[in-house]
């Protein structure tokens, strides 16, 4: 048998096997339409008002029973009987009644239970007997407390516990039993204070902790005892500082730290202890521009020990008026967000120590001018956002420094002209956004050397004519001119010459000012030759 025939036979056998498996699964599906089965039972978002009764499944086990986003109001003690699954999702149902015994009989095999947003005020006692339960989500329910005994039997198995958005107003003692816990989400609860010993049960195991909007102030000393933490999210709290040494126990574990919308007025010294940090988000904090690590010149950056691992830094909306020294020499950094600050000046070689940076967000800063070597050294940069920066010109002289730039956003500035050779030395530039600039004049050779540009946005630029210089961008595939008062008349006849010479013209997105129901592309393809062919000759 030839190799090609052998491969065809293998493919045929696989297809046949898949069909047989599908028909087998369908045949034993324990519920009727509108639910569907594969390795799980899918009844989510089916407008159900009750849980479909389980018919005989011939002893077959299914991975999950998914009933989320329905209109189910009642779960009786026997409603879930007959379902032999390891995961149940009842989230986002307006339950009026959830029987205490609803999960009896599932003690040994139920591993995951999702009861998010089901309107319950107390926890069914049968959950406490699920001795192999690993994941429990009871978020967004008006529960006011978790009895200490509730977790006594599941403490050895529970790995993930989410109860954010409840009415709990304290750190529950029930957490003391969770000796294997790896992920805890208590966001949007009024925690305020963490008592001594609050994290003792899982100080060596907890990897992810989310305490978003938990009314915490100041930074809680108990957090410093966590030794395995990889993710810490303390956003939307009134924390003004992280004390020096507070992160020492997680120096070689913490990879993602988020403290956005807090009350930090400077970069915390505790950051210096982190050695494997990959993502840092301190956005929306009222940073003081006088902080030594923001405007200082010393090489002792607070993020120096994370320089080999840090990939993402977000310092947007922090009131900064200079590029923070802390982000200098982060030679593995890939994304830097400094948007919505008060940065006025960029210096030459400002980012030269960031060779792996791919995304730089400087939008919504009052820059006004950009020195021509500002982006020198950004050899990996592909996306640059300079929108809403009060720029009066296109920073053409800076573009040759970013040879790999793919997308340039200059929208909503004060640019009035596109000069000759506006986009030089950027061989990979494929998308340019100049929308919302009041363009007065576009030079005849504006798009010379813009051969790689595929998408050009000139929306809402007060243009009264489509510039013929677009024909120089021979790679252009789409140009957006919507929101401009451009009439469809013989002033567009140059497009016919362009089409004749290149064989293809871009899709022109916009409407005729004199025929609002007609798009410019439609006019060009159906009427321009007829109306203006004689003009071109």
From TrEMBL:
<protein>
    <submittedName>
        <fullName>Protein flightless-1 homolog isoform X2</fullName>
    </submittedName>
</protein>
<dbReference type="Pfam" id="PF13855">
    <property type="entry name" value="LRR_8"/>
</dbReference>
<dbReference type="InterPro" id="IPR003591">
    <property type="entry name" value="Leu-rich_rpt_typical-subtyp"/>
</dbReference>
<keyword id="KW-0677">Repeat</keyword>
<dbReference type="InterPro" id="IPR050328">
    <property type="entry name" value="Dev_Immune_Receptor"/>
</dbReference>
<dbReference type="InterPro" id="IPR032675">
    <property type="entry name" value="LRR_dom_sf"/>
</dbReference>
<dbReference type="InterPro" id="IPR001611">
    <property type="entry name" value="Leu-rich_rpt"/>
</dbReference>
<keyword id="KW-0433">Leucine-rich repeat</keyword>
<keyword id="KW-0732">Signal</keyword>
<feature type="signal peptide">
    <location>
        <begin position="1"/>
        <end position="27"/>
    </location>
</feature>
């Amino acid at each position: 048998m030839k190799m090609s025939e052998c491969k065809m036979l293998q493919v045929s056998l696989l297809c046949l096997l898949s069909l047989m498996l599908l028909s087998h699964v369908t045949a034993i599906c324990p519920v009727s339409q509108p639910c569907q089965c594969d390795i799980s039972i899918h009844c989510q978002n089916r407008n159900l008002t009750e849980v479909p009764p389980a018919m005989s499944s011939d002893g077959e086990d299914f991975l999950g029973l998914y009933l989320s986003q329905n209109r189910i109001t009642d779960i009786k003690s026997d409603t879930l009987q007959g379902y032999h699954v390891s995961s149940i999702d009842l989230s986002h149902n307006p339950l009026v009644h959830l029987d205490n015994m609803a999960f009896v009989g599932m003690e040994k095999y139920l591993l995951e239970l999702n009861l998010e947003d089901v309107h319950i005020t107390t926890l069914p006692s049968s959950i406490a007997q699920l001795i192999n339960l690993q994941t429990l989500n009871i978020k967004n329910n008006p529960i006011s407390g978790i009895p200490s005994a509730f977790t006594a039997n599941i403490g050895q198995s529970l790995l993930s516990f989410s109860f954010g958005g409840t009415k709990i107003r304290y750190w529950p003692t029930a957490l003391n039993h969770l000796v294997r816990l790896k992920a805890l989400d208590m966001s949007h609860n009024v925690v305020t204070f963490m008592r001594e010993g609050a994290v003792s049960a899982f100080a060596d195991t907890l990897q992810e902790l989310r305490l978003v909007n938990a009314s915490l102030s100041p930074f809680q000393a108990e957090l410093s005892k966590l030794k395995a933490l990889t993710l810490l999210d303390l956003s939307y709290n009134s924390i003004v500082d992280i004390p020096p040494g507070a992160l020492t126990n997680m120096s070689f574990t913490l990879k993602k730290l988020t403290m956005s919308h807090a009350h930090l007025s400077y970069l915390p010294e505790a950051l210096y202890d982190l050695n494997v940090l990959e993502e840092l988000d301190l956005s929306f904090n009222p940073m003081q521009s006088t902080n030594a690590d923001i405007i200082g010149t010393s090489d002792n950056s607070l993020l120096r020990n994370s320089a080999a691992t840090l990939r993402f830094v977000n310092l947007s909306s922090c009131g900064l008026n200079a590029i923070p020294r802390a982000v200098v020499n982060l030679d593995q950094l890939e994304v830097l967000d400094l948007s919505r600050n008060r940065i006025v000046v960029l210096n030459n070689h400002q980012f030269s120590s960031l060779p792996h940076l791919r995304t730089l967000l400087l939008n919504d800063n009052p820059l006004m001018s950009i020195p021509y070597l500002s982006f020198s050294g950004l050899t990996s940069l592909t996306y640059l956002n300079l929108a809403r920066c009060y720029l009066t010109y296109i920073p053409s002289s800076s573009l040759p420094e970013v040879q790999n730039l793919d997308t340039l956003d200059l929208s909503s500035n004060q640019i009035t002209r596109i000069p000759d050779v506006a986009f030089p030395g950027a061989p990979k530039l494929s998308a340019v956004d100049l929308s919302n600039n009041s363009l007065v004049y576009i030079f005849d050779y504006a798009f010379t050397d813009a051969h790689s540009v595929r998408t050009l946005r000139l929306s809402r630029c007060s243009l009264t004519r489509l510039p013929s210089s677009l024909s120089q961008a021979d790679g252009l595939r789409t140009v957006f001119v919507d929101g401009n008062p451009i009439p469809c008349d013989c002033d567009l006849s140059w497009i016919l010459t362009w089409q004749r010479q290149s064989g293809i013209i871009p899709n022109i997105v916009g409407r005729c000012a004199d025929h609002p129901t007609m798009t410019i592309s439609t006019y060009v393809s159906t009427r321009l030759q007829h109306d203006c062919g004689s003009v071109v000759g």
